[in-house]
Amino acid sequence: MISVEEALARILAEIHPLNITHVPLADALGLILAEDVIAEEDIPPFDNSAMDGFALLSKDSRPRNGNPPRLRVTGGIAAGYIANHAVEEGSAMRIMTGAPVPPGADTVIQVELTRSDGPESEWVEILQEVAPGNNIRPAGEDMRTGQTALQRGTEIGPWEIGILATLGRANVPVIQRPRVAILSTGDEIVDVGEQLQPGKIRNSNGYLLEAAVRRAGAEAHRLGVARDSVESLREKLTEAISYDLIVTSGGVSVGDFDYVKDVMQEQGQMNFWRINMRPGKPVAFGRIGDVPLLGLPGNPVSSAVTFELFGLPLIRKLLGHSRLVKPQIDVIVEDDIHERAMRRHYVRANVEWRDGRFVARTTGNQGSHIMTSLLNANALLIVPEGGITFNAGDTAKAMMLNWPEVEI
Amino acid sequence: MISVEEALARILAEIHPLNITHVPLADALGLILAEDVIAEEDIPPFDNSAMDGFALLSKDSRPRNGNPPRLRVTGGIAAGYIANHAVEEGSAMRIMTGAPVPPGADTVIQVELTRSDGPESEWVEILQEVAPGNNIRPAGEDMRTGQTALQRGTEIGPWEIGILATLGRANVPVIQRPRVAILSTGDEIVDVGEQLQPGKIRNSNGYLLEAAVRRAGAEAHRLGVARDSVESLREKLTEAISYDLIVTSGGVSVGDFDYVKDVMQEQGQMNFWRINMRPGKPVAFGRIGDVPLLGLPGNPVSSAVTFELFGLPLIRKLLGHSRLVKPQIDVIVEDDIHERAMRRHYVRANVEWRDGRFVARTTGNQGSHIMTSLLNANALLIVPEGGITFNAGDTAKAMMLNWPEVEI
């Protein structure tokens, strides 16, 4: 049996980001940028007005004999259009927010600081003196031609999408989204829609893992259930090796019908198959052919928890993320926890920010078959190997499952 | 102008969760459960073994004259099958993890605490006395028939999907996913793939908002760009009223070409159109016909920030969530911030957990056209109305944009 840390290190040592591909901008959400993005234009592309108002020469805004100067209005510029003449001394042009500043003008005064005869007025009075550059957004103030606007390795969120759109990137170089095959194993497993016969249970892991894989940012494909025979497993795994990753549940323990390890040894390579933790000691990792296989336990809680600890970082590394794991923080436990197990225990808990500190409450019966212990759990309390006693008020480490990932 | 809080309250007062629909289990991820889910069976459905081992009568495990008792092995039960005979005194059956406990047996001993003649052995020696119920997971220990397994209003994550699968729910009653129309406005806007002509900029808001709407859990549909005319806007909005929500950007300021407000007043009802904040004063809310319309500003940063403050809670309420807004926490600011604006200012910042506290650093030029100020921003520092000076080391409120939402 190896430690959780060693297991994760061994997995990540074998996993590398997938290849680069180009996707339409709208499909890049959540993926990792595979190349630096260099601005090929200044952004904004031209000096433009930050306000609705008038473009003029700043020196024309100076009061004359204590009176507001009155300027001729020679036209208007709406956003999207350019002036067909320059602003000359003694004149001004109406200008809308975002419109290019016309040649000649060196400043813009907002409409609220002027007086005129309505929208068609042929004159405008300037009620306040304004400095050069007032309300003008210079070309290149946001990004300059040649500047690295987004760095390779950046996760593409809505705001990065906005920047890519501004720069005219209709197609984006990204790390491919992993395609993950999900395979449940066991003669006891029937599909969700089926009537339960005696001795049977439903395929909860397949659906749970499909959702978890999707939430991790990968494409999930349920391949159904392999029966408890080497033949059935070989057949399903033959189908699975066209994917980037295979995630199985069940079949990796010491029982007579635990064939996943056997087939891995036969058709690929097994790296490890037991981790010193609970829930979920029997976690296996290796390859079928060249495709990495993560074998999770059959108990639903074990499967759910070990996916968070190993499956999520694995998929994030395939996706090209540098932040792979959920953060750990100190929390105050609100109920007593007595543990004397030799294995490290990840206890499902709900953590809340209350009165300036994080407090944790465990979610009931922690048996690995008690799925209701997953409800309301947003964290895993970490009980170290060898056991420990936490009394209410003690500090413990918690892994925050709904916080953003951090670097290891 | 109304306050941010009043604007949000007015929006939410007009918005109600969408109707109930039924979706296949795998499609329920991220949606809100619309009805309580009652267990119609015990889970687990039958007493089953937690270990690979032997099922026996506990009294048969008592040492005889100091020696391990030797029992006849009358067969085996794999997971998924049921015993065809009972365990009688003096006998045992091999049993696999998850297999139903055979009639007659009241306990299970793990294989490691036995000795036998291999997998086909006709006898087994019991090396440790075991109590009744050992390694048996009783039927109904996780969920009992009639119990409310999941409550209406629960967000369906991977773990809830696992529970629904276990309970055989191939179809799930959920609140419909909102279909959101996204409309950019302005004669200056061209699509991402187009060459920039003088005076034009690209449609960054359409793509940014599409991604943000999707990340909020709704379906996003970009309807393109309405020109700066009442006719063009009417035409686009006629298309948009088949959606559950319309989000526009641009066209809601005081300029000559700001038609969104006008068309809203003509074809529906306008609730408000200015908020005492920046970036993003010109935010409008109302209806076109019966469809709510959220009008965001045209500046990309204003559009991005006001979506987080108003669009996200609005969409989450349509989805049926009870936790609508991003949480606010106290952070230590690491750079000086001097503000004397009358409007509340949401300053883009990066917040990190360092040495037991949250520290915030602003992300540079905070102009509403500076999209690069969005990069690395995971929080909005809140500078109250009227302005304030924060010196490095002072405490400020920050809204955490990548934390899970909380109740208002």
Automatic annotation (TrEMBL), chains A, B:
Segment forming the signal sequence: none
EC number(s) given by UniProt: 2.10.1.1
Keyword field: Magnesium, Metal-binding, Molybdenum, Molybdenum cofactor biosynthesis, Transferase
Key word Mitochondrion present: no
InterPro entries to which the protein is assigned, alphabetical: MoaB/Mog-like_dom_sf (IPR036425), MoaB/Mog_dom (IPR001453), MoeA-like (IPR038987), MoeA_C_domain_IV (IPR005111), MoeA_C_domain_IV_sf (IPR036688), MoeA_linker/N (IPR005110), MoeA_linker/N_sf (IPR036135)
Any one GO cellular component localisation term in the record: cytosol
Gene Ontology biological process terms, A to Z: Mo-molybdopterin cofactor biosynthetic process
Keyword Nucleus: no
Highest taxon of source: Bacteria
UniProt enzyme class: transferase
Family: Belongs to the MoeA family.
Functional note: Catalyzes the insertion of molybdate into adenylated molybdopterin with the concomitant release of AMP.
Protein name, UniProt field: Molybdopterin molybdenumtransferase
Organism of provenance: Reticulibacter mediterranei
